[in-house]
Amino acid sequence: MNRIKITYLTLFFLLFLSVFISLGYGKGFYELLKGFSCSEDFCYVLKKIRIPRTIFALLIGGSLSICGVTFQSILRNNLAEPYTLGISGGASFGIALSLIFELNSKAGPFANPAMGFLGAMCSTYIVFLLSRKRFFDPNQIILFGIVVSLIFSSLVFFLFSISDPDRMHGIILWLMGDLSGFESDFIVFYILIFLIPAFFLFFLNKELDVLSLGYEKARYLGLNPDTGYRIFFIITSLLTAFCVSVAGIIPFVGLIVPHILKIVLGTGSKHILFTSYLAGASLLILSDTFSRYVLYPLELPVGVVTGISGGTILLLLLLKRR
Amino acid sequence: MIKEILFSLKDISFSYKDKKVLRGLNLDIEKGVFTGIIGPNGSGKSTLIRIMAGFLTPEEGTVLFKGQDIKKYHVKDLARDIAVLPQSMDVFYPYKVEDFIAIARYPHLQWSFSNAKKDSDFIAFIMEIMEISYLKDRRITELSQGEAQRVFIAQCIVQDPMVILLDEPVSHFDIKYQMKTLEILDSFNKEGMTVVVVLHDLNLASEFCKKIVLISEGAIYKEGEPNEVLTYENIEDVYKTVVVVKENPISGKPYIIPISKRYL
Q1: How far apart, in Å, are the Cα atoms of B30 and each of B6, B10, B25, B195, B210?
Q2: What is the rounded radius of gyration, in angstroms, for the C-alpha atoms of chain A?
Q3: Does the structure show a pLDDT above 70 at A27?
Q4: What's the pTM?
Q5: Which of B28, B26, B29, B25 is nearest to B15 (CA)?
Q6: N or C: where does chain A have the smaller number of CB atoms within 10 Å of the terminal CB?
Q7: Which of A172-181, A232-241, A262-271 has the lowest mean pLDDT?
Q8: Which domain holds residue B127?
Q9: Residues forming a β-bridge with B22
Q10: From the CA of A78, how many Å to the nearest CA of chain B?
């Protein structure tokens, strides 16, 4: 059996295990094992809270990871992640606006995610317009991303300073990455909007490989790089914006997971995308479960957990690399 | 035998910002001929390669490939015919060498998830010829410059083109691999592949190229067989360096010896 098969098997097992832990942890392992004969209370918790939350963690962890794979390839930088293009800055600005003007109470439960999404798309579009003039030079894109992100973050702080601090508590939680604010009633809708862009990324795995060789070489291999960059920009920004608008900023998942899998496998994007989805999903489900129970009854934002653990792993990897 | 013209460049001019690089260049490249492009630094060799590949569009003039304006081709169709090795390739992604080379099958792929057995046999065969099979499972990011360059060339050949354009492919090599690489290109040339190569080493150009194009200040100074182009008058005029041209005792080709000013 080769390394690729072993990796797939391990990751499927890990995903299964983490879903099981996430659904059963607390009081419930026993009832989960008994199957559907669970008590009414537990069934309610399972259906209304644990299952949707686990699904969200799976979708967001997987999506962030494959966005990481894509960003690293098109920006030709192993340390790029979904937030490199300043998407988080734009999204926080959108959500901050929504919170200040209380759009939630005026326009329904989708107001926050929708504003976050608009903000995210807005900042990516600015970065895209700026980079297009420079032939999508990766270093320029990263620089533009950092600057745009800084400007938007400062705008958020500006909003902070002129408004009632209590009202801004929501945005602080959200900035730390939080999976508790989902809308479980619309779960099917969310599954679709997360899976469709992911499907496109899987489908375009060869194009991603070609673009990873750089602008000029991609052209020589028969891919119009301008079109290629445009398409990947659109898909990944959409997918990242969905993640950010639902769950805030969850750092390091999109960076660490592809990074490790590339070192382990070293294959083309096809296997890296699939395995990253599985690994990212498991990682976020486990981190979320951990964040729910480590300081029980207090619940930590999951971004704090991935930030601390992911950051430490990354540091170790960087040190090991000489 | 009737000569078939593969590339026909007419009155090509090109500039980067306000620096004029090519001025009214005319050039025909024959099918199946091992062609060398030589000229001083900054004379426009790399730009010429990029224009022939259709990557850059000249400000004036036209490029005909197989008798048709190169702009009319779809990029994927061009990639099936023309492979290009740019002057520098930088890699960041730790691909395994085999997977890295396989990316060049892209223009021949039918479907995103296809991974034909035929392709992997062909890749293994080319790696064997290029003597890089032993690198198969190594990571491209960990190779030495010379090893990586051989992998890049193998990647171009795996693209299975009818013409290959190489921009200074052997500059990083020691003499063993300079010889070996050009010999391999020569053997592909004998099987019908057209080879156009930018070389800095005039003696290598003399040994391997059937036709040499000498470029000076963005235009063709002289083109023809090595003994017509590599005369001491031409070289001294273009490179502003004193040389002595002898005959290589084995091959009979011109052999160029630069002479330092200290001895004049």
Answers
A1: 5, 15, 16, 10, 11
A2: 20
A3: no
A4: 0.91
A5: B25
A6: C
A7: A172-181
A8: 5-263
A9: B14
A10: 7
Q: Is A164 exposed, middle or buried (0-12, 13-18, 19+ CB in 10 A)?
A: exposed
Interface A-B: count of C-beta contacts within 8 A:
79
Provide the pLDDT for residue A197.
96
Q: How far is B228 from chain A (nearest CA, A)?
A: 33
Report the domain count for chain A.
1
The CA distance from A51 to the nearest CA of chain B, in Å, is: 32
pLDDT, residue B127, reads 94
Q: Which residues contact A266 (CB under 8 A, 6 or more apart)?
A: B94, B95, B96, B99, B139
Identify the domain containing residue A67 by its residue range.
3-320
Which residues of chain A make contact with B96, given a CB cutoff of 8 A? Answer: 266-267
- What value does the mean pLDDT of chain A take? 87
**DSSP assignments along chain B, one per residue:** ----EEEEEEEEEEEETTEEEEEEEEEEEETT-EEEEE--TTSSHHHHHHHHTTSS--SEEEEEETTEEGGGS-HHHHHHHEEEE-S-----S--BHHHHHHGGGGGG-SSTT---HHHHHHHHHHHHHTT-GGGTTSBGGGS-HHHHHHHHHHHHHHT--SEEEEESTTTT--HHHHHHHHHHHHHHHHTT-EEEEE-S-HHHHHHH-SEEEEEETTEEEEEESHHHH--HHHHHHHH---EEEEE-TTT--EEEEE--GGG-
Judge whether B154 and B166 are in contact, CB under 8 Å.
no
Name the residue with higher pLDDT: A211 or A81.
A211
CATH code at position A82: 1.10.3470.10
- Reading the block at residue B173, the tokens are 């090599």
Distance of CA A40 to the CA centre of its chain: 34
Whether A62 contacts A280, CB under 8 Å: yes
Burial of A280 (0-12, 13-18, 19+ CB in 10 A): buried
Confidence band, pLDDT 50/70/90 cuts, at residue B238: very high
Task: Identify the CATH number of the domain in which residue B163 sits.
Answer: 3.40.50.300
